[in-house]
Amino acid sequence: MVKNKLSIIMTTFNAASYVMSMLDSLIAQTNKDFELVVVDDCSTDKTLDIIASYEKKYDWITVYEHTQNSGVSAARNTGLKHISGNLVNFIDGDDWLEPGYVDFFLTVFENTDTDLVTCGFFMDTENGKSKVKTEKRQNGFVDRDEAIKQITKISGTVMGYTWNKVYRRSIIENNEIHFQTDLDLMEDQVFNVEYATVAKKFYLDNLPLYHYVSRKDSITKKFFDIDNVRDVGVANLRVLKTIRSSKLDKDSKREME
């Protein structure tokens, strides 16, 4: 049996004030069967200097630099080109992880036959306050329809984020799934729905292991800005088209049987 290895893709942009917390939380992981691929999207502060200092000390960290600022989607796509693990997830450089984050995902993939695993998360503030996101939903396996329902919900412990999920690299590559670079918002939800429509088995868990830090300058704060209305509308339309196309494919296969 091939041992699972997790490739963690971290994107950074002007995160010098925060990135050490994420890097230190990765160093503190109880399970070391992972690599970290960092893609910096042309930071103008000391982010790269900080990451480079960690790269020199730890052979499981590899850093790539964009030559021009291209956005988080392009950075994640760059990361996907440089991973070696059979499992993959995406984190943000201004958040941080519980010590059991990697071990939780690898344990579930080792002990179950699944294509997507989720964990719960904390909502942190810049001043250090932390609140666990909770939900009455039971942990365990769900079918595709339920997985997509949870991914597209605007609340709960699953939602459209990528940082609380681990994916099979083979499914991403075989289906040519990538992050859409013309979206600045909800690109992660589009990615998740595209993945879910071709994956078969889903394990959803509420165990909080990721700390999402809400910051004043976060792009999600601009969700309702007029400049981003277009992205929200386009993303929702692509989600609906993906779900509809998947349903039509399933109906067509049933008719042929």
UniProtKB/TrEMBL annotation:
Origin superkingdom: Bacteria
Residue ranges of every copy of the Glycosyltransferase 2-like domain listed in the record: 7-173
GO molecular function, one term: glycosyltransferase activity
Record's keyword annotation contains Metal-binding: no
UniProt-listed Pfam families: Glycos_transf_2
Glycosyltransferase in keyword set: yes
Keywords: Glycosyltransferase, Transferase
Protein name (database record): Glycosyl transferase
Organism expressing this protein natively: Companilactobacillus allii
Phylogenetic placement of the source organism: Bacteria, Bacillati, Bacillota, Bacilli, Lactobacillales
